[in-house]
Amino acid sequence: MKTTVLIDDQLLHEAMQAIGARTKREAILAGLRSIIQAKNRDLFRKELGTFDLDLNLKKLEKLRNAD
């Protein structure tokens, strides 16, 4: 699908350099994927919630060395 969008040239150029993109399309797609990944990561964190682990350094070392 073709879409016309006005994008700040300097911003796009910086994004292309930052990720090593060779084309504008590549930079835009990478940006969109990054946004989606960040959103999915946040949703996953919220879904997991938080919980309290009753671990101290000694217990953690014991668990690591159990194998």
Give an overview in words:
The chain has one domain. Helix content is 66%, strand content 0%. The chain is built from three helices and no strands. The chain has helices at residues 9-19, 24-48, 57-64. Helix 1 (9-19) packs across helix 2 (24-48). The mean pLDDT is 92.
Individual helix count? 3
Structural class: mainly alpha
Extract low-pLDDT stretches.
Answer: none
Q: What letter string, H or E per element, gives the SSE order?
A: HHH
Mean pLDDT comes to: 92
Q: Strand content of the residues, in percent? A: under 5%
Report on the biggest sheet: none
Estimate the helix proportion, in percent.
Answer: 55-70%
A few lines on this structure:
The protein has 67 residues and is mainly α. Helix content is 66%, strand content 0%. The protein has one domain (9-64).
Keywords summarizing the entry:
mainly alpha, 67 residues, 3 helices, 0% strand
Architecture blueprint of SSEs:
Blueprint: H1 9-19, H2 24-48, H3 57-64
Helix pairs in contact: 1-2
